[in-house]
Amino acid sequence: MNLSLSVVLPNYNGRALLEAFLPCTFQALDDSGLSYEFIIVDDGSDDGSMEFIASNYPQIKVLENGANGGFSYSCNRGIYEAKNQLIFLVNSDIRLSPDYFKGQLEYFNDPKTFGVMGKILNGDGSKLEIGAKIARRRGKVLKTDRFYLPDTNSNSAPTLFLSGANALIDRQKLLELGGFDELYSPFYAEDLDLGVRAWRMGWKCYFHEQSTCFHMGSATMKSQIQKSWVKTVYFRNRMLFHAVHLEKDELFQWKAQTILFDVLPKLLIGKTWIWKSFQAFRQLESKISESRRKLNNQLQKNPDAKSLRDIEREFQLLLDSQKAVLKF
What we know:
By secondary structure, the chain is of the alpha/beta class. It contains eleven helices and 15 strands.
């Protein structure tokens, strides 16, 4: 199969990271043997990122946002600008191994493949940060805090979602879904939502253990954004995800569980940011309805469409069929 690839890298004040890790990305691309284009979407940087790119990587196509639009918006600009069959979404703080793409293209021989991601280690390679994610429930809440590695007889495994930091995706399927849902802007849970939407369309996401990359840390975000605000966005987006994907008959129980076991306990111990999360979530009701409507329209046209419960059952069968090693 002769495939071509479009790299989409969102950037915000990541000059130091670009200087350090773009050479690794280009080496992996060159070693893959694929024809490729490289697109950077700059989200209003003021650290000289784009001057650095213009001087050192004139082959990179740059799209500049007039204002900071967040991860989903920036990625979507690149996705719709891309021309090739596969899109590789990568973050500026990811260092790829030279043979990163080896073995990944074979997945796309299956027309049901949505995408594949590799193993993410921490910066020095001493700790596994992300493996194949599984789906499990705690009451009405879908938990994604566990991941697993395939058994020793296989280096591939289904995963609930593909990390937005290193995802290789079928462009046509990605466009069919409309890219990332910008409901989740500025960041968090958009990749979970995308992966679950793909599974619900009857497609599959895979984890390829032999592909290794290293997460060097989101130093830019940590140094510029207050931790309480990050938590506010994170929990708001977890609520948004459930409001979009749960069946109508589950929503009331989920809201009650969220208020009783998440919002109120945190408020009682002084974590007032959780109330800001809840209020921000409620203010997006019309946009939540629009996301649900759009997804339901897509699913109704698809004979392979699935519910969230269907996906959970499918994952349990997959886990039962192989000797997977669970990680926490």
